[in-house]
Amino acid sequence: MDGTTAVLILILAVVAVVLGLSAMRRGRLRSLSPELKTRHAQSWTAIQARFLSEPAVAVQEADQLAVSILRDRGARMNGDRQLPGELRRARDAASTKEGQSGTEGLRKAMLEYQAIVDNAVGESMRKSPDIQRKEVAS
């Protein structure tokens, strides 16, 4: 192997590493501040309670909360093709025949939205008695 070939291989390797790191960075979401975690966990608790009496309204609110969380975490959401998978799955479940004619599709959508909330605020925070009490008191 001559010097030119070695340099070319080295340049291609560096480009591949840079592109790989860039792709990894785009897929990684940043953490939320403790204040945002608390606010989103409280909102989720209220949405879950609403699901019992108004499931369709609760799913709409869950979608809005999920979008807010994902934007706060730095997700790119330009068009349907770039939506995070969890959000796409939740919207798909809510828009199926099950979601439009009964609560089963809406329930499945809520589980997907809950995964977004848990990933952002942590399941332990979402289930925290302090979060539950604050929501009931307000």
Reported for the largest beta sheet, the result is:
none
Shape call? elongated
Number of strands: 0
Pairing-aware structural class of the strands and helices? mainly alpha
> How much is the average pLDDT?
81
Low-pLDDT segments, ≥5 res: 21-26
Which percent bin holds the helix content? over 70%
Radius of gyration: 21 Å
End-to-end distance: 73 Å
Q: Indicate how many domains the architecture comprises.
A: 2
User: With helices defined by DSSP (H or I, 4 residues minimum), what is the helix count?
Assistant: 8
Beta fraction: under 5%
SSE topology string: HHHHHHHH
Description:
- The chain is mainly alpha-helical and 138 residues long.
- The chain is 80% helix and 0% strand.
- The chain folds into two domains: 1-30; 32-137, no CATH class.
- Helix 2 (34-53) packs antiparallel against helix 3 and helix 4 (85-95) packs antiparallel against helix 6.
- It has eight helices and no strands.
- 22% of the residues are buried.
- The longest helix is centred in the N-terminal third of the chain and has 25 residues, at 3-27.
- The radius of gyration is 21 Å and the shape is elongated.
